[in-house]
Amino acid sequence: MAEQVVEDLRERCATPASLLHDVAAEMADEMRAGLEKEGGSRVKMLLSYVDKLPTGREEGLFYGLDLGGTNFRVLRVKLGGNDKRIVNRESREVAIPTHLMSGSSTELFGFIASELATFVADEDKGNSFANGNKRELGFTFSFPVRQHSISLGTLVKWTKAFCIEDAVGEDVVGKLQTAMEKQGLDIHVAALINDAVGTLAGARYYDEDVIAGVIFGTGTNAAYVEKANAIPKWEGELPKSGDMVINMEWGNYYSCHLPVSEYDQALDKESLNPGEQIYEKLTSGMYLGEIVRRVLLKLSLQSATFGEIDHTKLKTHFHLRTPHISAMHHDETPDLKIVAEKLEETLEIAGTSLETRKMVVEIIDIIARRAARLAAAGLAGILKKLGRDGSIEKRRSVITIDGGMFEHYVKFRKCLETTLSELLGEESSKLVVIKHADDGPGIGAALIAASHSQNRNV
Question: Is 396 a catalytic residue?
Answer without folding.
Answer: no
